[in-house]
Every structure is written in C-alpha cells, then in structure tokens.
User: Fold these one by one.
Assistant:
Number 1:
Amino acid sequence: MLREGLIRLLADEGIETVATSGDGAGLMALVEEHRPDLVIVDVRMPPTFTDEGLRAALQVRERVPGTPILVFSQYVEERYATDLIGGGAEGVGYLLKERVADVAEFLGAVKRVAEGGTVIDPEVIAQLLGRRRRGDRLEALTPREREVLGLMAEGLSNAAIARRLVVTDGAVEKHISNIFLKLGLQHTNSTHRRVMAVLAFLGQS
C-alpha cells in the first residue's frame, strides 16, 4: 500500500516511477537496467523483513556509485543511517515512514536527495545528539552550533536553517564557519566541507 501510494504521490508531482521491486535482488537488477535519478527503498524487505532493503541500498551504492538513495524505516535505527551514509553523504536520505504523511516535507526530501543532497530524519538526529560520548570532538560546538549541524544533516540549506531558527542568513553562515573551524575542516578542492561535517556528526569520520 505504501509503495502504490508513493507512486501516485510522485506522479502527481510529475515524477515518473520507472520500475518497482519487492525484493533486494530485483531492486539491484532494475537499478542496473534503468539507472534511475533516485532509488526509494524500504529497510525491511522479503524474505525476513529485517534489513534486506538496507543491504540492497548499500549494494546499489557499491555497484552503481553516485546513485541517489532515499531509505525508509518504520523505527529510528541509528545503525542503518550511519551504515548508509558511511560510503558518502552525497545523494543519501534516511527517513521514518511517518514523514510521508507530510507531503511537502517528503517531496522536499525526494528532490534534495535526487540533487545530491543529504536528508536525515530529525528523530535520528535527536537520538544521535542525545548519545554523544564524553570526549567526542563535537563537544567543542556550542548548543546552537550543534543545532545548526543537525539541520544541515536534515538537508536544509542555509536560508532554510535561518528560517527554522528565526535568525539571519549571516548568523547561520557564521555558525557554519565556526563548525568547520572546530571540526578542523579546511577548504580544499577535493573535499566538500558540508558533507564532511555531516559525516562527523554521524560518527563516520
């Protein structure tokens, strides 16, 4: 039911679903055949309905690098988010299924991930912030800077972060500059500091 609902929802926005699959093996074959602009995957797929969808998503990222993937889960499972983003944060999303109920939020996530952005569910971010260990280098960040970093992980732009926090764009830019400085993220031609900051947030670097 969720799959058919998503297809209709996307169609209403002019987004074509080129194929669907009920299992991981079929998904991999379809991705290699169609090379879609985005793959939407349920963490739980047959036959055991545990983590087959996640493993299929990881396989897609390995065999067809750069394929944007948006993964859905029924519950907050931090390991799935960190496993998925571990291979690179660009074009990756991890959302709870309940987010589909907010059509605008869901479609925004679809577009951001398809364009190479990162979208992590706010509930996952809240849990990650809540379990930070003593000595974690993110402890150098102020509460506001951690809040900004969490919103960056959700995939929000600077302007969207400013609106969410009711501050100026300049204030957001200052917070982000401080985040980069405190995390030791230097500007280079070979790295994307925003992505590296999100990876640090998720404990992957």
Number 2:
Amino acid sequence: MSDVETLKAEVKKLSAKAMQAKMDLHDLSEELPVGVENVMATAERVRDSYAALTAKRAELKALEAAA
C-alpha cells in the first residue's frame, strides 16, 4: 500500500472515531443533567479526536501535493 493509501485509511479511521465521539457527546447532552460529570471528559475526547483528524488530513494533503 502506498503512503497516500495508508494515510487515507488512517483518515477514515480517525473520522469514524471523531464521529463516534461527537455522537457520544450528543447523546450525553440529551440526557442532562444525568451524566453531567462526564461532559468535560467526553468533550475533551471530541476535541482531541477532531484535532488528530485535522492533523492527519493536513498530512495527507501535503503528501498528495508533493506527488
């Protein structure tokens, strides 16, 4: 598998992870105030997931531009 294909696969996995974290936060918000103690940890997981996804997308874009 080429580097571009590898990065695309990683982006796909990170995207799925970020979407799941987003949905977890959404589900948690619908049940408030139950689970309020989990909001910050879940929100941080969403932020971290999307930060990783953004970085990997930038890496892929740079690799594709260099090719």
Number 3:
Amino acid sequence: MSSSKPFKEQTVLITGGSRGIGAAIAQRFASAQMNVVIHYLQSHEAANAVARQCIGSGANVLTVTADLRSKEQIERMREKLEHHGMVPDIIVNNAGISHYGLLSDASEEDWNMVMDINLKGTFLVTQQFLPNLISQKYGRIINVSSIWGLSGASCEVLYSTAKGGINAFTKALAKELAPSHVTVNAVAPGAVDTMMLSGFSDDEKTAMQQDIPAGRFGSPDEIASLVYFLALPESGYITGQIISPNGGWHT
C-alpha cells in the first residue's frame, strides 16, 4: 500500500545526520529532492555543512538538535518539525556511539551511555513520531544496526548488545505495525569507512580487510543506497528484516 503523498513530497528524519553514514543518507534522499531533516547533538557546523550540500541538490532541509537520551528534548524536536510542516513519513534511526574494551573494564556509566544513545534513543524517537505514521496508514522506519548485533564482537560487548537489541526491536515492531502499512527494517552494516574505525590501528584495519571476502571496507554511500531502497513505496512488502551489507564477512 502506498502513501497518497508523492514520494518526493515525503519527509525523512535522519538522526545522527551530521557525518558518516547519516550524512550520506541525508544526501541520498536530498538527491531525490525530498524534505530532509538532519538531526544532530553538538556538531552544529557539520550538520549545517551537510544541509548546504542537500540544499544544493534541491531538497528542502531542516536541521534540528536534540539529546536522544531525553524524552523532553525529543518532544521539542517534534514540535519544531510540526511548526515547519516537516513531520516525518520516513524515520531513519541512525544515531549511535561505539564502545571498545574488555567487559571487565566497562563501567556502569559506559553501559548506560551506549544503551541510552543506541537503543533508548531509537525507542524514544520512534515512539514520538509513530502516531502520525499509524494515523496516515503509511510510513517507513529504518534502523541502522551493525554486523556486531548479528554476530557479536570480542571487546565490543556493550555495542553488540545494543545493536542486537535494535534488531529485536525491529522484528517485533514490524509485526505490530504491519496492519498499519508501516514497515520496519534494519540495516546492519559490516565495516564501513567512517570515524567509527578511527579507534583501530592501520595494522588492525588491514587485518580486518583481509578477513572480508570483498577485500575492502564499505562506503557510507553504499549503506545510504540500501536505506533509500527500503524507504521507497515499492518496498512495502519488505518488513521485519535485518539486512547486512558486509562484503560477505557475515552470511
């Protein structure tokens, strides 16, 4: 079932849209000259730079800041979007942080931070904008997960747990929203050439690439293309799926 609103007139909200995969997703939707909302926390200049690129593609763009750990700030974000007539038809829950280290060295604060931004933020943002999707009987929710949410990773237990939670959230919510013609899917990238790899040494990156059958890291643009595909009206029969573009690293 498709929306009565043409795809180009729909609005997409990308959380964590100021850099990396989030910025590439914003630019991909902007290339279709859609309404694009770029969320960020503190990276004001970076978000504005992405916004300028999107405007250059002919998109209608709004930047908005909110701490996704705070229900009150997300409510204010929703009010701002309503004021500007940019309530999202497509929600891309991309914002997230990583954590690298032994579980025995992780603090309770580390746990709370990773869970709050990656998992709680996805819950709060989705919940805040869900009533509109249900009432219009159409919508797309696309959660950016990780290969580690599927396979787990040594020294990334907190991050793997949070992303695994997003995968379960995706599958359960897809069943809940299917009668409302709202699809819910997750994209679980493998190693992608972004700042999230900055914590690895050159030797570690080389070893990682050698383990990937494709022999290279993915690009943010490749992930953005998959997100865009899942948002299309003709992708309405795809829901509850965890799709992992990873170069054959995990099958």
Number 4:
Amino acid sequence: MIRVLLVDDQPLIRSGFRALLDAEDDIEVVAEAADGEAGVLQARQHLPDIALIDVQMPGVDGIEATRRIAADPALSGTHVVILTNYGLDEYVFDALKAGAAGFLVKDVLPEDFLHAVRVAARGDALLAPSITRRLIDRFVSQPLRPNHSLTQLTGREREAVTLVARGLSNDEIAQRMVISPLTAKTHVNRAMMKLHARDRAQLVVIAYESGLVEV
C-alpha cells in the first residue's frame, strides 16, 4: 500500500486528489495539510511514502517543506513530489536541490497522475519533459559547478548515472548495459550512496552539475 500525504492550501484541490487516490486499491491518503509547516509535522507523524506538496503556499512554502523533509533522517523513506500550476516556473531547480523526487503539473491527466505516484513510490525520478527542459536550460545559462567528486564511482556506476540523467529506468539501463535489472539497480543505488544523493532526481542534478552529462 502506497501511503500519501497531501499538502496544498486549496481545500478543493486536496479533496479532488484525495478522491482520485482513495479510489485506488494500492494507494491510501493518510493525512492532509494546508501549509508547509503543518505538512512537515504530518509527515513526521504518519511517515508517508509520498508527500504531494504544492510549491506555492503561504508561510512555509513547498520548497522549504521539501528541504525539512529531506533533512529529517526519520523521513528518509518519504519521496516528495512537488505540485505546480506551471510546468516552467522558477522553482524547479531549487526544489530539486532541496530534495524533491520530481514535479507534477496540476492539470495532468488522472491516469498520468496515478502513474506518477506509483513511479515516485518506487524511488524513480519523476520529471515531466517540460521540467527536464527547464533543468537543462538552467545548466546552459550558468557555469558548471563541479562540487561533486565522481572519482569514487566505478566505470559502470558512472555509466549508470549517465543513463539515469538521460531518463532511463532501471530496466532500460539494464538493457543498455547488458546486465540484469537487479545489477542495474545496485549500480544506481551505490552511486547514490557515494554521491550522497537522496534519490534519482538528485542524481540527475549531480550528473549535469558535475559535467558528467553534457547538454
């Protein structure tokens, strides 16, 4: 069962998402909150698998709430998915740096929304094409800041990180590298541990930021 926390200051949005999620046999909404501060408290109380957090809220916004959740060792199993009204907003990079596993635009189709929740629950990065484009554009417009040492990665781990940054799943990475999906997952997980990346989304950031993947 995928346990979900909803954090949005608009009650109508929360109720719509709750109705959609609760209709699924494998998903359960365990709590709701109307602002980031309450959302962090609810996360600590319920330990959800997924926290769907609106990026723009009064008081503690979605980015700060994401940062607090990512920094809490007790919430290491909680994946934050940012909800936004716009695919190309100014918060994309900051939220990923704060620890978000991905983004969803609020006008996404219901079936795509449910798929995204399941993808995030598996620990995969969730970045819409428009969001990925924004992320890449950010790196094009600024000098690289190689503050992540890739020397500690093996050659296969570097290859796996490169493929993660290009949007491939573990199964696709396995096919490309001619290895088993379990071995692919092991390479990715070891790279995350060595680079202190919370999830695959942060691996994408590191891959571009370090110059491992070129735009």
